[in-house]
Amino acid sequence: MISVSVPLSGEITDGVHSLTQRVYYEDTDFSGAVYHARYLHFMERARTDYLRCLGVEQSALFETSDEGLAFMVHRMEIDFKAPARMDDIVTVRTRTEKAGGAKMILEQEILRDDRLLIAARVVIAVVNRSGRPRRLPETLASQFLGQA
């Protein structure tokens, strides 16, 4: 029996969040490689757990008494370097490059062991409940930049 001692939501070390995930049959295409769109799922989970590890509750931000706050992917650039395959254990690393104004820029990587499989740059729009841009509060920006 394999025992893993990694926290369910991953962990942050030196400003980088790491989330370990297994590749399942449902993630692969007919060739046995991970289908390209499934990497988006892996990265979304990692971004969500990154927030969780920072102590940020997305539902609470959205329901704040003022205009609310939410995050939406605005732009994503992805470089596919090598495929992951069924049963691989991959690690998604996420770090904040920029947080301020009405956007954040996150860098994400997916690795198998030490081999880089995917490199992505994600621009996140900060919006209110109506989907209109709003400023990221400075206290929240500081959390993302590891200054809180």
Plain-language structure description:
The chain starts with 10 loop residues before the first strand and ends with a helix. The longest helix has 16 residues, at 38-53. The chain has helices at 38-53, 58-62, 138-144, and strands spanning 11-13, 16-22, 70-80, 89-100, 103-112, 115-127. A hairpin with a 2-residue loop joins strand 1 and strand 2 (16-22). It has a six-stranded antiparallel β-sheet with strand order 1-2-4-5-6-3. The chain is an alpha+beta fold and 148 residues long. The chain contains three helices and six strands.
Features:
6 strands; alpha+beta; 6-stranded antiparallel sheet; 148 residues
Helix content: 10-25%
Q: Regions with pLDDT < 50 over 5+ consecutive residues? A: none
SSE pattern: EEHHEEEEH
Name the shape in a single word.
elongated
Q: List the total number of helices.
A: 3
Strand count: 6
What radius of gyration results from the CA coordinates? Answer: 16 Å
Biggest sheet, open or closed, and with what strands and sense? Answer: 6 strands, antiparallel
End-to-end separation: 39 Å
Write out the strand line-up for the largest beta sheet, numbering strands in chain order: 1-2-4-5-6-3
- Percent strand: 35-45%
Write the layout of secondary structure elements.
Layout (H helix, E strand, L loop, with lengths): L10 E3 L2 E7 L15 H16 L4 H5 L7 E11 L8 E12 L2 E10 L2 E13 L10 H7 L4
Antiparallel strand pairs: 1-2, 2-4, 3-6, 4-5, 5-6
